[in-house]
Amino acid sequence: MNTLQPGSSDWKNVAAQNQPDSSPALDALYQGMKDELLVPLWTQIGDLMPAHPQSKASAHLWRWKRLVELAERSGHLVPVGRGGERRAIALANPGLGGRPYATPTLWAAIQYLMPGENAPEHRHTQHAFRFVVEGEGVWTVVNGDAIRMSRGDFLPQGGWNWHAHHNAATAPMAWIDGLDIPFSYYTESQFFELGRESLSKAEMGTPAFSRSERLWAHPGLRPVSQMQDSATSPLLAYRWVDTDRALTEQLKLEAEGHAVTLSPGHAAVRYSNPTNGCDVMPTIRCEMHRLASGTTTQPRREVGSSVYQVFDGQGSVQVGKERWQVERGDMFVVPSWRTFTAGCNKDAPQLDLFRFSDTPIFEALHAHRAGNP
Ligand code: 1HN
Prior knowledge:
It is a single chain. By secondary structure, the protein is of the alpha+beta class. The protein has two domains: 61-216, Jelly Rolls (Sandwich); 240-371, Jelly Rolls (Sandwich). It is built from eight helices and 21 strands. It has helices at residues 11-14, 24-35, 45-48, 64-77, 181-187, 211-216, 240-255, 359-364; strands at 61-62, 88-90, 107-113, 118-124, 128-131, 136-142, 145-150, 154-157, 163-167, 173-179, 192-194, 266-270, 285-292, 301-302, 306-312, 315-319, 322-326, 331-334, 340-344, 350-357, 370-371. Strands 1-18-15-20-13-12 form a six-stranded antiparallel beta sheet. It is globular, with a radius of gyration of 24 Å. 1-hydroxynaphthalene-2-carboxylic acid binds next to strand 3 and strand 10.
C-alpha cells in the first residue's frame, strides 16, 4: 500500500516498496551486473537523490592560536621556494577523507612568510584571495603590481594571473588564503605554470598603494579607458578603513531609523567587482559581517558551503548541532544546507566575521536555494 503523498521525500519508508523477494536468481542477476560494472538504480536512489543536500563535510572549528603556532614552527623548519611554492597549511575537513579541503569546493589555509623571504612566481587557473587577520609587512605582487597586505585587507586574485609574495619587514607574517582548488580538482579543469624564481627590483618595492588601487579604488568612479567588463575584479586590494567605515555607517543608519541592515544589529558588505557589480570572482563570494554587541543573526541555511574567519570580537556560533565560543582568528566551516546562527557576546563591542563561500557557482547554474528554516 502506498501511504506516501506527492511531495514527500521519505526514502526510509518508500525504498522498501516494490523490491523483489530475494532469491538465487536475483542474487545471480546482481552479481552479473557487478561483474559488468553496472549498478541498478532501484537499490540506490535514496543515496543518489536525497531530499535535500546531505553534506559529507563536517561543521568544524580551527583555533587561530593553534594555526599560528604550527605555522611559526613551519617557518623555522621548512624553507619556502621553488617546488613547494608556498608555506601554506590547509584546513582538512574531517568529513572529506583527509584531503586538504575545508569544504567540497573550497580550500582554506594559513600562509606564513619569514622576514626577507620570497614566495616564487607562478600562476594557476584556480581563483584565490588573501585576507589578513593580523600583521603587515608582506607585499603580494600580481602581474608585477606590488600590493601591500595589512590587517583587515582583502586581496582577490583571479585565476591565471602571475603572483609572488615577499616579506619586506623584520617580523614574520601570517594570513589566510582561500581558493576554489577542490572545485577545480573534482571538475578536472585546472592549469598551472611556474613563473620567475625572483622578481625585478622594481617589483620588489613597497608602495603604500598598488597601481590597481590607484586606477580603481575611487568609489563609483570608473576609468573611462576601462569599459570592458572583467570576470574577476581588477581592484586587487579592498582596504580595512573602507570596509570598517561601510559597516559602521550601516549600523549608524539603522540607529537613525533606516532599514539598511540584514536584521537588527547585523550589518554586512559584499566585496564586489567594480566592472560589473558582481562577486569579485566567478566561483568565490566574499563578505564581511558585523554584529552589534549582544545581537544575533537570523538562522539561515543555503545551498553551498562557507568558511568563516573571526576578524574581531567574541561571540558564539551555531552550525547545525555544533556550538562554539569564538574569538579573533578562529576559522570554521558551514556545510551546505546546515543552519547557521552567530551572536556577539554582550560584553564584546562587536563581532566581525569574514566569510567566503562558493555561492556564485550555484547562482550561475540556477541551483541556489536559501532560506530561514
Ligand atoms: C598558491 O599559489 C597560494 O599564491 C596559496 O599564495 C595557496 C595552495 C595550493 C596551490 C597554490 C599563493 C595555494 C597556492
